[in-house]
Design goal:
two-stranded antiparallel sheet, alpha+beta, 2 strands, 45% helix, 71 residues, single chain
Length: 71
């Protein structure tokens, strides 16, 4: 469990524009539901932060960052 959390957290640090749950799931080889569950936990623990992206042209999405990588 902790290994998956670390994998997801590490992948969230790469892009400056943030990562969606779906992109992290594809990179980690896990389902979107599993990644979303871990991201929710990591956000509650303060290891990851999120913000709403309204620039999608459709349904807004959540972007995830490490606290020091947030724009």
């Amino acid at each position: 469990r902790r290994q998956r959390q670390m994998c997801i957290r590490d992948r969230a640090q790469a892009p400056e524009e943030g990562c969606t749950c779906e992109s992290l799931a594809a990179q980690a080889g896990l389902s979107s539901v599993t990644v979303r569950r871990y991201l929710t936990y990591l956000t509650q623990q303060g290891e990851v932060v999120s913000r709403v992206n309204y620039d999608t042209g459709g349904r807004p999405s959540l972007l995830y960052y490490l606290p020091n990588g947030r724009p």
